[in-house]
Amino acid sequence: MHTVSTSNTAAGQRTKRPSDWTPVNYDLHDTWFPVSHSRDVTSRPIRRIIHSQPYFLWRENGIPQAAEFHPSRLAALRHASSAFTGGSGSYPVIERYGYIWAWYGDPDHADIQLLPHIPFLPLDGNIPGYTQRTVRFDASSALSVENLIDLTHADFLHANTIGDGISESDVVEVEWTSETVTRTRMVTQKSVAPVMRWVGGIRARYQDFRAVLHIHLRSNVCISYPRFRPGYDIPNLQPFLPVGRHRSRCDVTFNTTAAPSPFRYLMPRINYIIQPQDNSVVRPQNERYLDASDRRDLHSRFDAPGTRYRYQMEQLAERQRRGDFSYGADAEPGRDITALLGMDG
Amino acid sequence: MANNAWWASALSEAVNNEKPLAVVCNGEELALFRDRQGQAFALEDRCPHRRVPLSLGCVVESGIQCGYHGWTFDGASGACTTIPNLHANERVPARYAARPYPVAERNGFVHVWLGEDEPNESVPAATYQPEGREYTGAGTISILHEEYLAAMLDGPHCLISFDAVKMTDFFLGDPRLQNDHLVLDRGAVWSTRVLPPQFVVDYPLIVRTSVPVRGGDIRVELLTEQEAPLCTVFIASGANRRGTTSVCWRGFLHQSDVSHVPLRWRAARKMKRPPFRVHTQVDGKLLATLLEAPSRDLARLRDSSIIPLRAAV
């Protein structure tokens, strides 16, 4: 794993100027997508979409099914199945962590070992319904992920909920593999977030926090572990489903079961406030990343995780463009990330 | 410039055998009329004699008669059949003709072929198969035709509304090319429900817009989440003068028995209220805020479908 801290990044390093970033066009194959919360899949079919590819989901005798066509038309249309289901019409599917995970790519490559490890969610998905919410982003999944990585925006766009950007010390670190990017932000003596003050009952004026965000590049599965002291841990999963080039969907889980009431119930719903704020910026932003431009983005040192994310995504996309869909030796998507998230500290 | 395509240019009931109907279709000025047998014809709305619009005239036994000097033209060939007051030994020169356009009438629409090539068989409204009562209308809207088509993908709520339905701009995937049309689904909710769309896990409704790569036939469908059709609207559109767009439409309710339909919807249908409204006035402010998203694909495809028209005769 590679690591860089913003506090010791050498300035003035010159490298070959990369081509412009056009994240809207990413279509990375061979990965599991958490396509729906488990509880939303019943015997009545629903349709979800990954990169414009339809995923009809339903249960038969309690077992989740995923297919390219509505089950009532599956038999008749099976002959028209795509390579995503190997001509069978049905996708590989697994139920875990309270989600239905469906495979996007060559079905022969589907491997349960490639499922991400999410240490704060029960394997059998046995978690209260209030922890799960659905939000929609008016941007492609990669831009939505970049929005989540980017922390400096939160101090401005979400100041009324998450808090301002004033602190004693603010260090951002980033580490990566060929399949993941992990961002860690450590802040000391930051004003207590309004939501934690007014709903969480934290009466201190300042708090420290450490927020780890572990991103699986192919699937946009963002595993987030923020720890506030004084305060609570708010482990959460934000998987951005790439619906198309203009929109993404996020079936989130905030495991706030260890936090006191009413904070534990309200925190998962905070996305209903935050997400329209994010949409107000990512929506107009999205169309400006559709085509390569000569006017390149400018960056500050706080953008190191974001620029690393851009670079790693581009590397992965380039590999797939060459026809290489394999996982690198350093990848191990299913490895235990308990320590990486700082859960044991 | 024109693309070789059939354009649905008028509702069938608007074309009769008494008074010609003037239409502008993709910038072409046309006079539409019928003969006594009900056959529909289209001629350029320009008398080759003194350039007066033929639509100012009337329909007679042998075709359309110009209102200025009474020259009469055959609907099918455009040939001038009569010049009033010629001597008995005088004949109308064979080359005297108004410009005719191929016409095909199907499912309540009069189509005109615009382009230099021979007409093909793919008449747009052939796919429109109404059931039961239809709701129809026509109008001219102050918006460029290409922008009208683009807005149908980016924000159809600016141009059409379904009773008791709130469209979202959450696209269910990207536009897909099907039969020379870009087809895009978006989520929708019943406006009677208290829960705002952002709280809805799976949208109970789908609005599917289908916008042509060539021609002007648009289809807007309201579907349930199980993709059972509730309402279908076929909108024929084309460029009119001065950056405006002509539209005429037909739509109908499907006879499907769908559960979870709100009482307000059912009651309004019982009272025979139209299930949809095609807007003939566009809210410029609303339109200006629409971001160019799925329509980018359309602009690229329509550009490549346009071929130069040879010099007009």
What does this structure look like?
The complex is a heterodimer of chains A (345) and B (313). Chain A is an alpha+beta fold. Chain A folds into two domains: 29-126, 3-layer Sandwich (Rieske Iron-sulfur Protein); 129-320, Naphthalene 1,2-dioxygenase Alpha Subunit, Chain A, domain 1, CATH 3.90.380.10. Chain A has helices spanning 71-77, 141-149, 154-157, 194-198, 263-266, 271-286, 304-321; strands at 2-5, 31-37, 46-50, 53-60, 63-67, 93-96, 99-104, 132-137, 169-176, 180-191, 206-216, 221-229, 236-242, 248-254. In chain A, the strands form three sheets. Chain A has an eight-stranded antiparallel sheet. In chain A, strand 6 and strand 7 (99-104) form a beta hairpin. The relative contact order of chain A is 0.19. Mean pLDDT of chain A is 89; it is low at 7-15. With 313 residues, chain B is mainly beta. Chain B has two domains: 6-113, Rieske [2Fe-2S] iron-sulphur domain (Rieske Iron-sulfur Protein, 3-layer Sandwich), CATH 2.102.10.10; 133-305, Alpha-D-Glucose-1,6-Bisphosphate, Chain A, domain 4 (2-Layer Sandwich). Chain B is 11% helix and 37% strand. Chain B contains four helices and 21 strands. Chain B has helices at residues 145-154, 263-270, 284-288, 295-305, and strands at residues 5-11, 21-25, 28-34, 40-44, 58-60, 63-65, 72-73, 80-82, 100-101, 103-106, 109-114, 134-141, 160-162, 165-171, 176-178, 181-190, 205-212, 217-224, 229-239, 245-253, 276-278. In chain B, strands 12, 14, 15, 16, 17, 18, 19 and 20 form an eight-stranded antiparallel sheet that branches. A four-stranded antiparallel sheet of chain B has the order 2-3-4-9, with no helix packed on it. Chain B has a four-stranded antiparallel sheet with strand order 5-6-7-8, with no helix packed on it. In chain B, a hairpin with a 4-residue loop joins strand 18 and strand 19. Mean pLDDT of chain B is 92; it is low at 307-313. Chains A and B meet through strand 3, strand 8 and helix 6 of A and strand 14 of B.
